[in-house]
Amino acid sequence: MFENLKPQPADKILALMQMYRDDPRQEKVDLGVGVYKNAEGVTPVMRAVKAAEHRLWEQQTTKAYTGLAGDPAYADAMIELILGNAVEQDKIAAVATPGGTGAVRQAFELVRMANPAARVFVSDPTWPNHVSILKYLGIETVPYRYFDAETRAVDFDGMIEDLKGAKAGDIVLLHGCCHNPTGANLNQSQWQAVVELLNQGGLIPMIDIAYQGFGDGLEEDAAGVRMVASSVPECLIAASCSKNFGIYRERTGLLMAISQQGDAQALNQKTLAFLNRQNYSFPPDHGARVVTTILTDDALRADWKAELEDVRLAMLGLRQQLADELQRLTGSDRFGFIAQHRGMFSLLGTTPELVEQMRVDHGIYMVGDSRLNIAGLNAQSVPILAKAIVDAGV
Ligand code: PMP
């Protein structure tokens, strides 16, 4: 049997991490994998997470199974965090999942189950795992234009034109905020126009929100999601707590299926629970319980928000420093987009050859599509990167 297996493509980001580790240079800079790092290069456990874990350790009396949907209190807390009161609770089915990836996977499985003919429209580019999971599930993927190579902002006209090619029942995958890999995001009027297009075409949005709080703030980053969820008949939302709670390895995510049809919620909830049962039975609980503990306790929630805000502002500061340094070196504003982008990433929009050159000449490690992890920088490495960008002639 095993002789029939063929090697699967290696994950490029993970391969890059290994190359970075093997590089003996002192001044090497890791801008690859999407993990937040502070100025010391550490991915810390957030204070509120430590406190919540301590509380759980003291108070938790059992590790017996939860329900197939996970702890309902977790779904309630996350729904409130993401949607506020934009959608009535009885319209929302929700299950805990192993990370945002688990939510994305379960969402696509639900799509395939409900409408095998549905195609999924994805931004070009998008998080590569979206495309990889869709391919694995045998779901047809259609790219839509998203990134303007000239301005490094959203190519909104191109996006709308391409989405007009979708048929009723097709899925449109949107990033809730902090687009990965580009860092370029829709503004409120663009979200509004997307909502109109979805409703005119009978298209179903699926929103992946993995960086709430990393862009313009917790509420601001959820504004697009809330607008869509409250304005369309049906939608899917896949959320991750990996980044904004810094609990990457705890595998903590949530999938929501929202339907405005009065009686759909019960069946949607049962179907999501069924899908969990088929794939892994009960979803992981520890991270979910930590998140619930934080979100439902005023003091812990306030402390978490304060630390998250520090993280967000640190990344904005690094963006500004890098844009300023490039302005100084080039005498032009053409890298101003770095300060305009939001979230952990910016797509430089250059060739794999120049990315490789920056790695060889300056020890700068970024993904081949020229995605920078802004959080991989600090005050010392900003000038090194700026010089590498200018030397390479980006
Ligand atoms: N969606 C997007 C757009 C992401 O960038 C990520 C993390 N890289 C995820 C989902 C999933 O994150 P996780 O499974 O680690 O929660």
UniProtKB/TrEMBL annotation:
All copies of domain Aminotransferase class I/classII large, residue ranges: 27-389
One annotated Gene Ontology cellular component of this protein: cytosol
Any one GO BP annotation for this protein: L-phenylalanine biosynthetic process from chorismate via phenylpyruvate
Annotated InterPro entries: Aminotransferase_I/II_large, Asp_trans, PyrdxlP-dep_Trfase, PyrdxlP-dep_Trfase_major, PyrdxlP-dep_Trfase_small
EC number(s) given by UniProt: 2.6.1.57
Cofactor(s) the protein requires to work: pyridoxal 5'-phosphate
Cross-referenced Pfam families: Aminotran_1_2
Record's keyword terms, sorted: Aminotransferase, Pyridoxal phosphate, Transferase
One MF term in the entry's GO annotations: L-tyrosine-2-oxoglutarate transaminase activity
Recorded superkingdom: Bacteria
Family (UniProt): Belongs to the class-I pyridoxal-phosphate-dependent aminotransferase family.
Subunit structure: Homodimer.
Protein name according to UniProt: Aromatic-amino-acid aminotransferase
Provenance organism: Tritonibacter horizontis
Gene that this sequence comes from: tyrB
